[in-house]
Each structure stands twice: as structure tokens, then as C-alpha cells.
Description:
Helix content is 51%, strand content 0%. The chain is mainly α and 140 residues long. α1 (12-25) packs across α4 and α4 (78-88) packs parallel to α5.
Amino acid sequence: xxxxxxxxxxxxxxxxxxxxxxxxxxxxxxxxxxxxxxxxxxxxxxxxxxxxxxxxxxxxxxxxxxxxxxxxxxxxxxxxxxxxxxxxxxxxxxxxxxxxxxxxxxxxxxxxxxxxxxxxxxxxxxxxxxxxxxxxxxxx
Length: 140
């Protein structure tokens, strides 16, 4: 999933696998999204690196367009459907380990609203980004 500058764009082979899956679950509007490959790459890059939306590299498109598509699809449940479809097809997701001693909640974090669509989609996008990174060819 990476090119020479490390921005995380789909290779042609990886996009050939992912495009039919994305087309199957994305909402069908009047006009298809422009440069979908670049936008999906930017979304996966952002979730793989844990960066803010404004930190998305310029060569992956305008950050606001990337964020807008992610949020719109999150509210429509596209990311959950894509993750389910990938798992049904038998593509194994990579493993992630988190050391709980490094995670601290703010003292006022106890009353937060739980389980909204965007938070669930963030987790799905992180898992999909890990899958894309795991299936990318390794340099020799």
C-alpha cells in the first residue's frame, strides 16, 4: 500500500482487489465520487497513522474532501458493510496489540456518549487500513 514517498497509495494489484468490494458497498448516487482510489487511500492512511484529518498528505487529495466522504459513509454504515464483506470473503485482518498501561482517560471521560456511527466507522476503517497494509507486497 505504499509508494516511494510512504504516503500509502494502493498499488494497481491491491486496487484491483479492493475496488469491486468498495463498489459493492458504497452508496450509489447520481454522480460517483471523483478519484475514489486516492480518497480511500487517504482515509486508510489517516487511520493507519492516527493523524488528524488536516495532516493527510496533499498528494492524497484535499483533507476536507477525504473527511467529508468518511463521515458521510460512516453515517450510512458503509465501513461496517465493507468490513463484513471483507471478512466474509475470508481475508484475514492483521493483529494489533495495545499496552493498556499507556492509555489514560481524562478525568471527565466517564460520561461520554457511546457507540455513535462515526466512532464505529473509525474502528472499521482502522481494521481495513491494517488489512491493506498487511496485504501489501513487501520490498525485497
